[in-house]
Amino acid sequence: MSKINTVLLDCDNTLVLSEELAFEGCADLINEISATKNVPLEQPFTGDSLINEFVGQNFRGMITSLAQRYGFSLTPDELDSYVRREEDVVIAKLQEKLVSCPGADEVLAKLAAEKKYKLAVVSSSALRRVQASIDKVGQAKYFGADVFSAATSLPTPTSKPDPAIYLHAMKTLGKTADECVAVEDSKSGTLSGTRAGIKVIGYVGPYKDAEKKEMERILTEAGAVVIMQHWSEFESILAKVQSGSI
């Protein structure tokens, strides 16, 4: 029998439907950076094109990857300035339009009422953005201070698929990987949790129907032990993880 007592949750498109809003917000900024650095783009980035390539990564990781690809550089001050600007743009969009993933609020309320599991958020996104997201939809009360950001909470900022943020969260919470289960919607997030030794539930709920089959394959290959289509399945899936059947 498993001894899982902690549920670690990604935020973007796992708890809240934020990815489209966020990538919409940062596409304009990336296009501005490209113009400033004279990067010859075949066509401007859009929210959709960024999602396809960078879902699960934070803005710092995204712009660092693009700088390597296109051969331009940013000073640490420039990078920090753009990261702050992207946070402001995205947070404004989230505060205007953000909603929870269907069924997530009900699951969180039940888990909190049962008091069997420690609940924490483990995200690549900046802490200010994650906090704004869970505040906006009323989920913050379930996590208190247990909100961890790869962009903000670590001595050196990083992004999933680096497992550093999961390792940091477990150390801070005083938990081992065997005591935890994670929920992730992206390849990078699933790799991050898996590399930290945690069993990961792959969540495909927010993806378009035409994309779900492919995402199931991608998340499974990245290490997800089971795929969840909707939050209504979480209780039965967690029972199977606890029993050791998955």
From TrEMBL:
Pfam families: Hydrolase. Keywords: Carbohydrate metabolism, Magnesium, Metal-binding. This is HAD-like domain-containing protein. NCBIfam families: HAD-SF-IA-v3 (TIGR01509). Its cofactor is Mg(2+). One of its GO terms (molecular function) is phosphatase activity. It comes from the Eukaryota.
